[in-house]
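dumping these here so i dont lose them again. two proteins, back to back, each one seq then structure tokens. dont judge the mess
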Amino acid sequence: SNGSSMTPFCFDCLPPLAGFLAMSERIKFIQFFQALRHVDFINDDVKNNKELAKWAFAVVYTRGFPTPNGDDFRIAPVADYFNHGTETEVQVDYDEEGNCNVYTTRDVPAG
């Protein structure tokens, strides 16, 4: 579970750094949930559904990528599976049209 779903008791059970990071995530979720109230094109039933908001927040927070200039945040399906090792093997980039392009950063043997 991520910080947005944790209770105050959960934070007390974590080591200090983990508790701080989880609490920071919870604060971001609270701000996200409050910001939803100001989005006109989202139905009020959706805006007030906290469980749905937690799911949406988790998807964006765990699956999204910042654009190279840092001005935007995007979700690129499957791209979040790259670079789970200790060494970066692919570079995720976006063209002017918003298309996601993935390039290897080193030679990858066939197979």
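---- next one ----
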Amino acid sequence: MAYDAFKAQYEADAIALVKSKQPIDISIPYDAAAKLAYEASDKSMAYDAFKTKYEADAVALVTSKQPVDISVPYDAAAQLAFEASDRTMPFAAFKAKYEEEAIALAISKKK
């Protein structure tokens, strides 16, 4: 077989192969998690009842995970320094002195 004939046959076969392929649905059903959980369960209840309970349990789990407050108090650095100090002065006085020294240090580093 000559190259030109081989090329024509190869291209025709490739086109036929591409045309023969059907689109594949790769979407995930909305209730896929419930279906998977149901398949793994003992199937002691009907799927519709299981799905309703599964979704209610999932919502309860998510709402139980309320955000945790991870904010840091403005004077946290002063509090830590005070706790590590000898505590010879009240916190309010220590904080004022600490902030004054921190500001002076920051200004000195800008120069």
